[in-house]
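Hello forum,

I keep getting stuck at the same step: I have a sequence, I want structure tokens, and every attempt I make locally crashes halfway through. Rather than fight my setup again tonight, could one of you with a working pipeline run this one for me? It's a single chain of 845 residues.
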Amino acid sequence: MQKLSAQLELASSFAERQKLVVAAAQEASPDELKQIARLLNHKIEAVRLGAIQIFEKARFRPVLRILADATSKRGGQERVFAARAVASMAEPVDRDWLEPIARAWLAEKDEFLRLHGDSLLVALGVPAAAGSGDTATKAAIVPAAQAPAPAPTPSGLPGEGITAVDREARARAIAHLLAQDDPAPMLCTALIETKHPGVRMDLVGALEALGPTRLAEAAPVLLSRGDGDLVALVARALERAVPNLGERALTPLRAVLREARGRLRGHALARAALDDCALEVEADDAIEGMAERVDEVSIETVRRVAAHLEALPGDRRLRFIPKLLEALGRKPRRVLLFAAVLREAWASLRPPRRRELLGILHAAGRARIPSGLGRDELISVAHLYAAVLGPGDAPPATVLDALDRRDEPEVAVAAIEVHRSLATEEAAERLAEYVEEPTVEVRDAARRALIEMKVRHVDIAVGDDGSVAITPAYRTPAGEPLRAGEGVLATDDGVRYALDGDGDPVAEKDTEWGGCRCCKRPRVLIRARGARPTCPRTGLAHLREGERACLERDHPLGGCGVCESVVPLVRAGAVVRCSECGTEHVRVDQRYRPAPRVRSRGAGSSVGVGAGVKPQAGLTLPAPPSPDELKLVEPSIAQAMAANVFLIGGAGDKGWFGSGVIVARAGAQVAVLTNRHVVEDEVDPNHAIVADMRAVTITGEVASAQVVWRAERGLDLALITLTLDQPERVGLAPLQEGACLVGSRLFAIGNPLGLSWSYSSGTVAAFRTDETAQGLPVRYIQSHVAISYGSSGGGLYHEDGHLVGINQRGIDAPGGAQNFAIAMPTVVDALRREQVGFAGAPLAP
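Reply #2:
Ran it on my machine without issues. Output:
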């Protein structure tokens, strides 16, 4: 919840907040939505508004009374957002307690609150005569005794002021326009011309207030001419209106929706809204296109596609299955949302399609299941696996875990069917646990399954008193009994055995890769092309160490991250490398990964090495852009690339890479600005040491780096110096403060993921001020410029080429990453405050 709160607070536009809202509403479980309800009391209004929108999108009715209460205790946008959510989620069963609230809204001076009051009465099923006459065409009709004094009519022509930034002035202008005949053309014109998110929301709300038919008539021009954000708003409004539209109104919308979906294919927010709307407007026509894109669309849209498919007759449904399976192969865990459809279709599928579906289900059974699966959905998932799986197949571990976390007897009985289909010793032991369940229905189902289950080489006895005895009876092909221990099948003289695909023991020495080390009874390892040997039951990768197999995840060094070697990495002194391809590996996040490498361009090309510096053994140094390549780059970007430095840090057996910016030059020496965390190795949370640093410049020269300054008071800045053979050939990014505004175009140069001298671009989202743990205020630039691991310390530039910040970190979010750079005023202030010098003079005078 803290992460969601921060993301809502940092969202710099309506579009970004909507992406967060849509993602949270689709992915959050009911328990998580209850936790989100605490955000309704957050101190930041943007967070409170986001929480209200999440509940509206998810139709989370448990907060209905809280939101209704907020309409009387809150003001401004929050009050209107809460009222809209209440009107959206209300049902006729709420009439007794919500109708008085709707009447109170109708008596308010706030035009939009009155419009939502009218919508609420409609949702509650209040007859038109008892509500507002013509639903939302004009301001709501209020009993005379309660009617407020009319709002002052704005001066000027109708429509003037409807895009005003001042919300109150805008509300008065919109109310004045709605009182005129046919206000829709002016609303459409204003929607296309304005880019202000708040103005657009109000104008679309006003257009909705004209009624479903008028909205449908106005929608084609907006869908055809609007940008992605506007189209998303209009599509959502249409989606809400579809149930009240007839075929005559829907027919012209279908072609326009198809055109808009093609035009805005790259706009995620618009595409999601258009997909959802298309399912309502042209369900049968849209479903085929949706089926082949279920790996791309939102979870909510996937659920709706599944519901439409489930409603189709069996023969019509089958024609969609091939494209559906193709898409699910790209995102297997979504297959669980189609469990009911695929279970019914299973008997009619041809053998190739069955094999395809089985492969998808095996992958889904090891992946994180989609959140929010309800009881009935989980039971459908279990029924699908029970129908598809056979004896000895890999168990769907994450699915079985999800079933075990539910307490309903019906779910437990469904899980029992899955275990019965697997017919393994492990499945029998799990069924024996179900026999101990307190619910009679579950106990009886488990007993029946054990009585009927036939497991190769395992004897199962179920007593009249409910006792269960499971006895391993494994024998060699020659009939010799095998000793069955935890993770072991062996003869008395120590010959190890593993179970083959049919569940029969075979000697490990007679197999190519041996037996697994992850199961209670070892399975014969299998190896697909380009992969490690894996256990067919768990899918876990293994390595071959001597005559024995070992789990890759348990080996202290692991396997090679470059080649297909099946042997573990080896250590030679302080260097860890692959014994087959020679690639050096460094420790990253508790695992060994290939050291940063970008192969040299062209035959015979080489990387120059500075005096006294030897490239680390096994490491292919990054190759910078050549002079000919730089000629194809915009001058301002090429200048920034020339100032970029690829930094390589190391301490002990650990290694990493980052970025830096050359900001000054004096003779053969240059000064490079970077982040403090790039030049330090954190020994523990309270202690860090200076790492051994090297740098590669635009010329390909490698130089040892001396760390001369690490900022104080928690500021993530550092300065290193290099002595170069060709200092005149590198670029400079002078320390100067230039123009930088919200909306300004920016670009970054750095080495993300070891991809040297990379360019990315975006815009300024916002300026933020935060404090370090030591209380030092730091000015940040929040931007849409993509940065990744390895970008730290690189330069963030204005489009005209001047340096505006030092990239520091990114925050991943459902609606898109937010990236932060330390702004140049903070950098310059720190250099001056701590009197950082270079070549005998202050670096920042």
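The chain has 30 helices and 30 strands. If your local run keeps crashing, start a new thread with the error log.
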